[in-house]
Design goal:
The structure holds two protein chains of two kinds.
Chain A: H1 8-16, H2 20-32, H3 41-48, H4 65-91, H5 96-120, E1 129-130, H6 139-160, H7 167-191, H8 206-216, E2 219-220
Antiparallel strand pairs in A: 1-2
Helix pairs in contact in A: 3-7, 4-5, 4-6, 5-7, 6-7
Chain B: H1 6-32, H2 35-44, H3 51-78, H4 83-107, E1 116-117, H5 126-147, H6 153-176, H7 192-202, E2 204-205
Antiparallel strand pairs in B: 1-2
Classes of the chains: A mainly alpha, B mainly alpha.
């Protein structure tokens, strides 16, 4: 920022702001869409690079293979979260502010799942089978697990963002990354712990995240391998 | 400090769910629209990331972080913040100071000076403070997110460690204001110009 002349800052801004692109995008979008529908814009931006009017099956054809792989990894995390919140909501075990948060966050995670599936088209991995080991049936275990999932998702997105090659996908991913951080803080507050502990959130590698997810045994191979009617309490 | 208006909040939550669903419906609509091709062309018009561009963007986010520091400092002195709201402001201030230090460290001697500020009633009254804090944290999130595609991978990785902390602050203070903590499915980016205008509106005197 130059000190001589009041235009220094504006000049600097213009130099950064080659993304007048986004401003223009916003203006165009606001003209044709309601403000709320703008929600989908970041994701739609990602979708546009890939979906060329052809069928959904070809949606991911324009993406680098490494981006497809990262998106599928993110999709599994979103499946995990969406299923977890949906099951908790249906269990009827949550009350008050926690029930409200589960409803809001669940609807957002389901939206993320749908958006990624749309983006990936036929390359999208299938939803795994989950057994949340009773954590969706009691408020405290639910919150503790939600905190763990959300913090993990924040770290996972953060680990992958710099590796994404498609700018459109990156723009969508960072818009989701910060939403997961909002969720993490929300669940932490409800659980009764500090929503924001450190000045810097650290990333987690894919290997690390996969190891943690595996350690929960929430993803199961086949439903018929264990005879189980309803999820059980784990105490 | 926390309002107990379950019915309002339930209504809000329902609205949020519907909006999240709408957002995805909009995705489908947008994909088919002519607007879409234009979006892609515009996205492609970004300059390629470079060290020089990183530095320019870091100057912008330094302005953001300076604003946060000054805002929380002044509010802690003048807004009679109590209880968890005070704890929030103190915690956030500590984080924002660390962000300023990190960005100044990255910029070295080229780091811009701290501007002056006039936040008005936002730093003199707890309710005004909460609303301004929500705005400021949301601006930071949108500002960082808006520059993500313009940064080199290394600087992006560093910025990503900061933006999620700002998102945690935003969520926390929304809870303290009795609002839905995370109302959107995707955080919408802001351009550098939009960020600058928003900061000036809130009290930055450039």
């Amino acid at each position: 920022m130059t000190v001589d002349g009041s235009n220094g800052f504006d000049d600097f801004l213009e130099s950064v702001d080659r993304d007048g692109a986004i401003a223009e995008t916003g203006a165009l979008a606001e003209a044709s869409l309601s403000r709320r529908r703008l929600l989908g814009l970041a994701l739609a931006g990602a979708g546009t690079a890939l979906i060329s009017g052809a069928g959904e099956a070809e949606a991911a054809s324009g993406l680098p293979a490494s981006d497809v792989s990262i998106l599928n990894y993110a999709l599994v995390l979103e499946y995990l979260q969406a299923s977890f919140y949906t099951e908790a909501e249906r269990s009827g075990a949550l009350t008050g502010k926690t029930a409200e948060a589960a409803r809001v966050v669940g609807s957002v995670e389901r939206a993320h799942v749908r958006a990624f599936r749309k983006l990936l088209g036929s390359k999208a991995v299938k939803r795994p089978l989950f057994n949340f080991q009773g954590t969706t049936e009691q408020q405290r275990p639910f919150l503790k697990t939600a905190v763990a999932f959300e913090d993990l998702a924040v770290a996972a997105y953060k680990g992958q963002a710099p590796k994404l090659k498609s700018k459109a996908v990156l723009a969508a991913a960072v818009g989701i990354h910060s939403v997961e951080a909002r969720h993490a803080a929300w669940m932490r507050e409800l659980f009764g712990i500090t929503p924001a502990v450190h000045a810097f959130d650290q990333p987690a590698s894919r290997q690390h995240v996969n190891r943690i997810v595996a350690s929960t045994h929430f993803i199961v191979q086949r439903p018929e391998m264990k005879a189980r009617g309803k999820p059980k309490y784990t105490g | 400090m926390r309002r107990n208006v379950a019915t309002d909040k339930e209504r809000a939550a329902d609205g949020v769910s519907r909006r999240a669903v709408l957002g995805v419906a909009a995705l489908g609509a947008l994909v088919a629209a002519p607007l879409v091709g234009r979006l892609v062309r515009l996205a492609d018009a970004f300059a390629s990331p470079s060290k020089a561009q990183d530095a320019r963007i870091l100057q912008l986010v330094l302005q953001l972080e300076y604003t946060h520091v000054a805002f929380y400092e002044q509010a802690l002195q003048k807004a009679s913040l109590q209880g968890e709201l005070r704890a929030f402001a103190q915690t956030a201030l500590g984080h924002e100071r660390a962000h300023v230090a990190a960005i100044k460290g990255a910029l070295g001697a080229k780091a811009g000076p701290r501007p002056s500020f006039d936040f008005g009633p936002a730093v003199r009254n707890p309710d005004e403070f909460k609303q301004a804090a929500i705005k400021l944290e949301d601006i930071a999130i949108a500002g960082y997110n808006g520059q993500a595609t313009n940064l080199t991978a290394g600087t992006l990785a560093a910025a990503a460690k900061i933006v999620s902390v700002e998102a945690r602050h935003a969520s926390w203070v929304r809870t303290l204001a009795g609002e839905v903590a995370a109302p959107e499915a995707v955080d919408k980016p802001m351009t550098a110009k939009q960020v600058s205008d928003a900061l000036r509106e809130i009290g930055l005197k450039a």
